[in-house]
Specification:
This protein starts with 8 loop residues before the first helix and ends in a 6-residue tail after the last helix. The protein has 14 helices and twelve strands. Helices cover 41% and strands 12% of the residues. The strands form three sheets. The chain has an eight-stranded parallel sheet. It has a two-stranded antiparallel ribbon with strand order 1-12. Strands 2-3 form a two-stranded antiparallel sheet. It binds ligand FNR. Ligand FNR binds next to α13. It holds the Pfam family FMN_dh. One of its GO terms (biological process) is oxidative photosynthetic carbon pathway. Its cofactor is FMN.
Length: 368
C-alpha cells in the first residue's frame, strides 16, 4: 500500500479487499445514483472567497455539539454492519472517534451492541434509531442506549422503506451468517433472511414502521430524556416542523444518496434548511464530505458540524482502527489548512462571505 494522502484513496483499497457483496453494499446509492454523484459534485461548484493578511498562527477548531465539547466539527455518521468491513467493526470506529476527540454515531443495525461499544472506553456517542413496528423493541433499545451512556438519539426519518439499491438486489444482499444485528440479538430480529431481492430491503419491509410521523417524535420524547436529532431533513417545510416538534437539532442528510434518487445534494439543500430554522436549533450535514474544504463550505453555509459515512467504512476495511484514525486526522488537517488559507482562526469566524455558490454567481453582484 503506498502512502495514503486523502480519505478517498481508501475506497479503491476497500474494493480490492472486500467481498463484492460487502463492497457494493457500502458503496451503492439508489437507482441511477444521480444524487450519489451530485453529493460530491455540488461541493466542487462552491468556490472560496478567502481573506488574507490575517494572523493565523493559532487556529481553534473546537466546538460544542448539544453541549458536548469536541475537538473539531467533524463527526462519524451511523453506518450499519461495520464488522463486514473489518473484524473489529464498530469497536475500531468507537476507539478512533474517541482518540480524535469527536463523536461517533452508532447505527441501530450495528454488528456490535450499544453495551459492547460502550465497553471500549470513554467517548461521546450518539445512537441512531430506526423505529420498528414493535414499539416495545424500540423502547427497550432506547433504554439500553441511555444506560450505556449514549448522549443523543439520531432519529432517521428518510427510511420508511428502503431505497432501491440495485447492486444489493443483484447480489441478493444479506448480512453474512457469522454476523448479527447485535442490538436485536435475542429479540429474534438480529438475523436477515435471504430474499429474492435485497435481504435488507425485505427486512425493512417486515420490521420498520411505515406509519412513522411527526407525532412519533413526540412519542420518542415521552420515552427518553435524550436530545433528538432529526436525521434526513432536506426542505425548509420539514425544518420548520422539526423545530416545532421539539427536536434538538437537524441533520441535513439524504442518507448518502441511498434512499430517494434525484434529491439535491445535501450541500445544495443546506442553506434552505438553515434559513428555515432561524437559528433556533443547530443544523448538521452529512453526504459527500471527503475533504477539509467540504467541511469549511458546509460551515460557511450555516452547518454547525458535519458527519462522514463511507470514508469510515472504507478505511475500516483497509486498515481497521488505524484507518479510521487516519481518516479523521486527514480531514482535520485539511480543514485546519482551509481555515488558515481562508483567514479564519475559529469556527465563529467562518461565515457566508467566505464562499461563492452557484446561486451567488447567477445573482447580481452586491456592492461591497
Ligand atoms: C448508511 N447510512 C445510515 N444511516 C442511518 O441512519 N442508519 C444506518 O444504519 C445507516 N447505514 C448506512 C450504511 C452505509 C454503508 C452507508 C454508506 C450509509 C447513511 C449515513 O448515516 C450517512 O447519512 C451517509 O453515509 C453520509 O454520506 P457519505 O458520507 O457516505 O457520503
Amino acid at each position: 500500500m503506498g502512502e495514503i494522502t486523502n480519505v478517498m484513496e481508501y475506497q479503491a483499497i476497500a474494493k480490492q479487499k472486500l467481498p463484492k457483496m460487502a463492497y457494493d453494499y457500502y458503496n451503492s446509492g439508489a437507482e441511477d445514483e444521480w444524487t450519489l454523484k451530485e453529493n460530491r459534485e455540488a461541493f466542487s461548484r462552491i468556490l472560496f472567497r478567502p481573506r488574507i493578511l490575517i494572523d493565523i498562527s493559532k487556529i481553534d477548531m473546537t466546538t460544542t455539539v448539544l453541549g458536548f465539547k469536541i475537538s473539531m466539527p467533524i463527526m462519524i455518521a451511523p453506518t450499519a454492519m461495520q464488522k463486514m468491513a473489518h473484524p473489529d467493526g464498530e469497536y475500531a470506529t468507537a476507539r478512533a472517534a474517541s482518540a480524535a476527540g469527536t463523536i461517533m454515531t452508532l447505527s441501530s443495525w450495528a454488528t456490535s451492541s450499544v453495551e459492547e461499544v460502550a465497553s471500549t472506553g470513554p467517548g461521546i456517542r450518539f445512537f441512531q434509531l430506526y423505529v420498528y413496528k414493535n414499539r416495545k423493541v424500540v423502547e427497550q433499545l432506547v433504554r439500553r442506549a441511555e444506560r450505556a451512556g449514549f448522549k443523543a438519539i439520531a432519529l432517521t426519518v428518510d427510511t420508511p422503506r428502503l431505497g432501491r439499491r440495485e447492486a444489493d438486489i443483484k447480489n441478493r444482499f444479506v448480512l453474512p451468517p457469522f454476523l448479527t444485528l447485535k442490538n436485536f440479538e435475542g429479540l429474534d430480529l438480529g438475523k436477515m433472511d435471504q430474499a429474492n431481492d435485497s435481504g435488507l430491503a425485505s427486512y425493512v419491509a417486515g420490521q420498520i414502521d411505515r406509519t412513522l410521523s411527526w407525532k412519533d417524535v413526540k412519542w420518542l420524547q415521552s420515552i427518553t430524556t435524550l436530545p433528538i436529532l432529526v436525521k434526513g431533513v432536506i426542505t425548509a417545510e420539514d425544518a420548520r416542523l422539526a423545530v416545532h416538534s421539539g427536536a434538538a437539532g437537524i441533520i441535513v442528510s439524504n442518507h448518502g444518496a441511498r434512499q430517494l434518487d434525484y434529491v439535491p445534494a445535501t450541500i445544495s439543500a443546506l442553506e434552505e434548511v438553515v434559513n428555515a430554522t432561524q437559528g433556533r436549533i443547530p443544523v448538521y450535514l452529512d453526504g459527500g464530505v471527503r475533504r477539509g474544504t467540504d467541511v469549511f463550505k458546509a460551515l460557511a453555509l450555516g452547518a454547525a458540524g458535519v458527519f462522514v459515512g463511507r470514508p469510515v467504512v472504507f478505511a475500516l476495511a483497509a486498515e481497521g482502527e488505524a484507518g479510521v484514525r487516519n481518516v479523521l486526522r486527514m480531514l482535520r488537517d485539511e480543514f485546519e489548512l482551509t481555515m488558515a488559507l481562508s483567514g479564519c482562526t475559529s469556527l465563529a469566524e467562518i461565515n457566508r462571505s467566505h464562499v461563492l455558490t452557484e446561486g451567488d454567481r447567477l445573482r447580481p453582484k452586491p456592492r461591497l
